[in-house]
Amino acid sequence: MPPIRHPARHRKPPPEGFEDIEDTLLEFHNKMKDAENASHEGKKKYEMLWPIFQITHQRSRYIYDLYYEKEAISKQLYDWLLKNGYADPMLIAKWKKQGYEKLCCLRCIQTKETNFKSTCICRVPQANLKDGRDIQCVSCGCNGCSSGD
């Protein structure tokens, strides 16, 4: 049997420009650890994961904005960040499509997990809600991620 190789030993060093964003990514990492270790007392079962989804969204949006909006990082660094799990590549792929620019998480558009085979309530534009009530997604806790708002 071949020896098992530890992945950390063979990891390529980050491309040029990583030092500029490393502090911000470290802040996101620390927020994530705090959210994972936070007390879950008094919260509903589905509310426990909301901070984790929100931090993942913020970190992915930060990297997306750096590459696509501000053009502040190189293609090599962007690919390296996606490959090493600093951002969600599937979520970023959806953000590039029309109508999904503000998407909060992928669970909100998956129709298989809902009772009526439709998207989440947070995907409905606020103008289309009859009673004007505030909505909150059960999956991730967002208050509306429709691009038509």
Structure description:
With 149 residues, the protein is mainly alpha-helical. The protein folds into two domains: 17-36 and 45-96, no CATH class; 102-149, no CATH class. 38% of the residues lie in helices and 0% in strands. The protein has four helices and no strands. It has helices spanning 18-37, 50-69, 75-83, 89-95. The chain is globular. It comes from Lindgomyces ingoldianus. This is Cell cycle control protein cwf14.
Summarize this structure as a short list of keywords or feature phrases.
single chain; about 150 residues; mainly alpha; Cell cycle control protein cwf14; globular
Describe the secondary structure blueprint for this structure:
Elements: H1 18-37, H2 50-69, H3 75-83, H4 89-95
Helix pairs in contact: 1-2
How much of the polypeptide forms β-strand, as a percent range?
A: under 5%
Helix % is: 25-40%
- The N- to C-terminal Cα distance equals 58 Å
**Class from helix and strand fractions:** mainly alpha
User: What does the largest sheet look like?
Assistant: none
- Count of alpha/pi helices: 4
Q: Give the overall average pLDDT.
A: 86
The domain count comes to 2
Low-pLDDT windows of residues: none
Organism: Lindgomyces ingoldianus
Protein name: Cell cycle control protein cwf14
